[in-house]
Amino acid sequence: MKTKVYKFVLASLFLMIAILLTSCEKELNVQQNFPFEVKVMPVPKSVSQGQIVEIRCQITTPENYVENQYFIRYFQFDGSGNLHIGNAEPLLPNDTYELPNKIFRLYYQSLSQETTMFSIWISDSFGNEQKVDFEFTNIRKEE
User: Fold this and answer.
1) Is 81 in contact with 52 (CB distance < 8 Å)?
2) Strands 70-78 and 97-99, how do they pair?
3) By 3-state DSSP, what share of the chain in percent is helix, strand and coil, each rounded to 5?
4) Which parts of the chain are coiled coil (predicted)?
C-alpha cells in the first residue's frame, strides 16, 4: 500500500513540475497591435481650378506603441489634381508613403474644371487600415 501511495505522490509531483516548467514564458506578452482612427478637420466643399486646399489630419490610438509606423496612399477616381504631404513632391496614386508623424497636413490642388473625388488610405505596420473619402465640387471662375 505504501508503494502505491509513494508512486502516486511521485507521479503527481513529476506532473506538477512538468506543468509549471512548460507554462512559463521567457518573454512578456505585450500588445503591440492597436486599432486607430483618422480624424480630419473640416474642408471646403467647393474649390476652383488651381486652388490649394489644406487637409489637417490626426491619427488617434487608445494606446501608443512607439515602434508602430503609419503609411498613406491615395487614389483619385474622378477629376484631376495633386496631393502633397507638406512641401514634398506630389504623391503618386496607389504608391505607399511613410508618415513621419501622427499629426500631418495634406495639400490638395485641384487641376480639374469638374468635380474631383479621391480617397486616402492610412495603414499601420500591423495591417490595420482606415479609408477617408474627399469630394470637391468645382467653382467656375467668371470670365
Assistant:
1) no
2) antiparallel
3) 15, 40, 45
4) none
Please give the CATH topology (third level) of the domain spanning 37-138.
Immunoglobulin-like (2.60.40)
* Torsion sign over Cα 97, 100, 104, 106: negative
CA angle 41, 129, 29 (to 5 degrees): 115
**Which DSSP state fits 3?**
H
| CB atoms closer than 10 angstroms to residue 114 | 14
d(CA 133, CA 47): 16
pLDDT digit string (tens) for the chain, length 143 residues: 677 777 777 778 777 777 766 666 666 655 566 789 999 999 999 999 999 999 999 999 887 767 789 999 999 999 999 999 988 899 999 999 999 899 999 999 999 889 999 999 999 998 899 999 999 998 876 54
The three cell numbers of residue 100 are 513621419
